[in-house]
């Protein structure tokens, strides 16, 4: 027996080392090939590799000038070439006619699907499900690669704590741990096991870094982040992407602490390359190199090129500072040719990994199976799992026998429900809620009430109210059109736009129960109407299959599976808002809090209440991070920890008993949070460290166990040392960030 085990160990060892040997040989081969190629390239060709040329996907002609640039080796990559003939022709010129036959990479923003559109990324984040993130990006890669695309500008890994920011729609939400789990899954999905597989895409972790911390939630705005905050909150998702082998990273538009990210040596060289060990290439965001002029950091285009080069930016997106000036900058000794060689090597390495030297052309046999049944079912599943039930006065699920009034501007808006960054998804393939109700032969009456989300006209109210009267329950599909979130689409007011609130108030007068289904790119402030509605379901922009997904949720064929990946504010005035904030010296609590209407008239000037809150909206969100109801109920009981004191090598087991106390089977997403009570720098009041989906039959009880160690308690302090510190910790297991059963333990050196 012993011999047998020894044999087994040796075989495993040999096969592992065989694998490692193979990988390192492969690496050596392409590193050798890269060096050989580099030695043959002229300065102009090297500069050409750093050039990412943008085109318009609607372009009807392929300009001669562009072909000539490729022929001369002056372009390294393209974005948005969506005409298949142009893709083929440009690649043929690059491979057959350019001096060294270096293939091009074709890039595109394939963010949440290519043709089959999945929920917007914040919706995917609401699934808390890495498998969904992975399969959605796998399908997106499969479809997009049929169009010759081998590089996507995704995933976006910006932590977003402000719902005014339009790009919160594309973000993984406010929590670094959740973003880390999802980031890894996206990379695995896009890139697959082997990047040289022609149906995989090189991923791009963006936007490095701090873009989501734009002051006031105004897109592109200035960012001030202390280094510990940067390292503890904004960096972890990027680290996880790099550990997962992400091929490229995009630098962000914003400045951070006074230095634009696209010219930031510290971030791009020290942090990204030296510390995180990134060995793919860095691409600027659209014109972000030359935008350093408007930032007041670069004097002119040439200076911008010099600054980006000094920072270690490998490829320039659309602006032409490198193209126009790198040669002179090298001549003048302001940039060295060795630096440029590094950029080119980084770019060629990704081209080798993508297998483009062996297999540069689009595989014409690969159709992408756009909207294949399997893709649609995955998209539907993702939409179901992304919806978050926020309120339910027992109105949902509805029974088959009652008559439904479908009302609202998003009940049948195929284009809008696809959300931001859905260039390639066709509205003709979109399944809306109205279509799904029609197809299922359900008893419904329909009246839009408003033509589109911003519609201020009350002309349709009368008809909508009549429709509502003629029903047993109102399903109001409201929210925001797709164009109201995403890049450059920040809002100062995050209420339902147009006359939606007014219409809901009118409908409430009918006395019929109202279910508000929100399709939007951000949490929407509903505090003005919360008492007029009986249930609220957040569907984000649910994508191609949103209609069927929502129909099944309404009737309880499926349950809403999502949890909030961001705190849901009562009003924009509370923003930025995030659960993992720090305490103040006067933390807010319900005992001291004095609401505005309770302040005596003619009060003496005093710091009444004495704590950190708003007089008018208090200190709590409408719904906390991690929150989401289901069609059943769960009871958390009997939290236990394996030890009261652990040392740095120990693992701590934390468990609870979870019971499904409702009448339906259902899924809980059980969450574990930790608080480091005292730190060498102050620590957040709570931080998510683990979560787990738990399926329970009605009446069933399960023990749910998590294991954590001192690694999970580490943070970066002002000396930039990452370590866990001895002391007291609190740990909670619960259904969301504002609830849970608590225990304490001590971490001892
Ligand atoms: C966005 C990026 C995007 C790029 C290319 C920029 O405006 O910030 O996220 O990848 O355009 O379309």
Automatic annotation (TrEMBL):
- InterPro entries listed in its UniProt record: Cellulose_Degrad_GH3, Fn3-like, GH, Glyco_hydro_3_C, Glyco_hydro_3_C_sf, Glyco_hydro_3_N, Glyco_hydro_3_N_sf, Ig-like_fold
Zinc among keywords: no
Pfam annotation, one family: Fn3-like
A GO BP term, please?
Answer: glucan catabolic process
Say if the entry is tagged with keyword Hydrolase.
yes
Q: What catalytic activity is recorded?
A: Hydrolysis of terminal, non-reducing beta-D-glucosyl residues with release of beta-D-glucose
Q: What residue stretches are annotated with the Fibronectin type III-like domain?
A: 668-737
Keywords in alphabetical order: Glycosidase, Hydrolase, Signal
* SMART domains from the UniProt entry: Fn3_like (SM01217)
| Example of a GO MF term | beta-glucosidase activity
EC number per UniProt: 3.2.1.21
Per its UniProt record, what PANTHER family does this chain match? LYSOSOMAL BETA GLUCOSIDASE, PERIPLASMIC BETA-GLUCOSIDASE-RELATED
Similarity comment: Belongs to the glycosyl hydrolase 3 family.
What's the protein name?
beta-glucosidase
Q: What organism is listed for this UniProt entry?
A: Tenacibaculum adriaticum
* Lineage of source species: Bacteria, Pseudomonadati, Bacteroidota, Flavobacteriia, Flavobacteriales
């Amino acid at each position: 027996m012993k011999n047998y085990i020894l044999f087994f160990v040796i075989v495993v060892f040999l096969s592992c080392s065989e694998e490692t040997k193979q990988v390192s040989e492969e690496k050596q081969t392409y590193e050798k090939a890269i060096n050989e190629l580099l030695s043959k390239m002229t300065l102009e060709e090297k500069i050409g590799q750093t050039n990412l040329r943008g085109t318009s996907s609607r372009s009807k002609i392929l300009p001669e000038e562009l072909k000539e640039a490729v022929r001369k080796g002056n372009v390294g990559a393209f974005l948005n070439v969506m005409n298949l003939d142009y893709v083929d022709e440009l690649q043929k010129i690059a491979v057959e006619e350019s001096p060294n036959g270096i293939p091009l990479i074709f890039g595109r923003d394939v963010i949440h699907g290519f043709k089959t559109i999945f929920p917007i990324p914040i919706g995917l984040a609401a699934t808390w499900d890495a498998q969904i993130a992975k399969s959605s990006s796998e399908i997106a890669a499969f479809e997009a690669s049929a169009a010759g695309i081998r590089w996507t500008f995704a995933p976006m890994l910006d932590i977003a704590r402000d719902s005014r920011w339009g790009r919160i729609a594309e973000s993984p939400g406010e929590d670094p741990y959740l973003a880390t789990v999802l980031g890894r899954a996206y990379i695995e999905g896009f890139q697959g096991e082997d990047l040289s597989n022609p149906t995989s895409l090189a991923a791009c972790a963006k936007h490095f870094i701090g873009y989501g911390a734009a002051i006031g939630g105004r897109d592109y705005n200035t960012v001030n982040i202390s280094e510990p905050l940067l390292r503890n909150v904004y960096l972890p998702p990027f680290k996880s992407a790099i550990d997962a082998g992400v091929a490229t990273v995009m630098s962000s538009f914003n400045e951070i602490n006074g230095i634009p990210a696209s010219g930031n040596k510290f971030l791009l060289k020290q942090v990204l390359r030296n510390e995180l060990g990134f060995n793919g290439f860095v691409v600027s965001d659209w014109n972000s190199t030359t935008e350093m002029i408007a930032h007041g950091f670069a004097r002119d285009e040439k200076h911008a090129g010099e600054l980006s080069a000094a920072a270690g930016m490998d490829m320039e997106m659309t602006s032409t500072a490198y193209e126009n000036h790198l040669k002179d900058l090298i001549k003048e000794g302001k940039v060295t040719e060795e630096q440029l060689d590094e950029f080119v090597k980084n770019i060629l390495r990704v081209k080798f990994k993508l297998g483009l030297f062996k297999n540069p052309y689009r595989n014409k046999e690969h159709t992408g199976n756009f909207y294949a049944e399997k893709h649609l079912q995955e998209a539907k599943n993702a939409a179901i799992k992304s919806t978050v039930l926020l309120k339910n006065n027992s109105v949902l699920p509805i029974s088959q026998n009652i008559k439904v009034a479908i009302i609202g501007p998003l009940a049948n808006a195929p284009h809008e429900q696809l959300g931001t960054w859905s260039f390639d998804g066709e509205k003709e393939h979109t399944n809306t809620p109205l279509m799904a109700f029609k197809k299922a032969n359900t008893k419904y009456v329909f009246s839009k009430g408003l033509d589109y989300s911003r519609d201020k006209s009350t002309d349709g109210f009368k008809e909508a109210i009549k429709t509502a009267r003629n029903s047993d329950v109102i399903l109001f599909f409201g929210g925001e059109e797709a164009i109201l979130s995403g890049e450059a689409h920040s809002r100062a007011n995050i209420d339902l736009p147009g006359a939606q609130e007014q219409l809901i108030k009118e409908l409430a007068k009918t006395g019929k129960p109202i279910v508000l289904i929100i399709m939007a790119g951000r949490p929407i402030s509903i505090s003005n109407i919360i008492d007029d509605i009986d249930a609220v379901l957040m569907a984000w922009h649910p994508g191609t299959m949103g209609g069927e997904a929502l129909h099944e949720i309404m009737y309880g064929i499926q349950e809403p599976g999502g949890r909030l990946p961001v705190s849901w504010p009562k009003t924009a005035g509370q923003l930025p808002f995030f659960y993992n904030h720090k305490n103040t010296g006067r933390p807010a609590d319900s005992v001291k809090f004095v609401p505005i209407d309770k302040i005596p008239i003619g009060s003496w000037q005093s710091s009444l209440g004495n704590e950190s809150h708003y007089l008018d909206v208090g200190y709590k969100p409408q719904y906390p991070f991690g929150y989401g109801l289901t069609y059943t109920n769960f009871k958390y009981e009997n939290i236990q920890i394996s030890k009261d004191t652990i040392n740095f090598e120990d693992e701590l087991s934390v468990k609870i008993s979870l019971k499904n106390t409702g009448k339906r089977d259902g899924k809980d997403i059980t969450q574990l949070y930790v608080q480091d009570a005292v730190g060498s720098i102050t620590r957040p009041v709570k931080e998510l460290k683990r979560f787990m989906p738990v399926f329970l039959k009605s009446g069933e009880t399960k023990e749910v166990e998590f294991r954590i160690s001192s690694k999970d308690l580490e943070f970066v302090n002002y000396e930039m040392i990452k370590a866990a510190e001895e002391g007291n910790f609190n740990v909670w297991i619960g259904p969301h960030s504002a609830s849970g059963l608590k225990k304490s333990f001590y971490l001892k050196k």
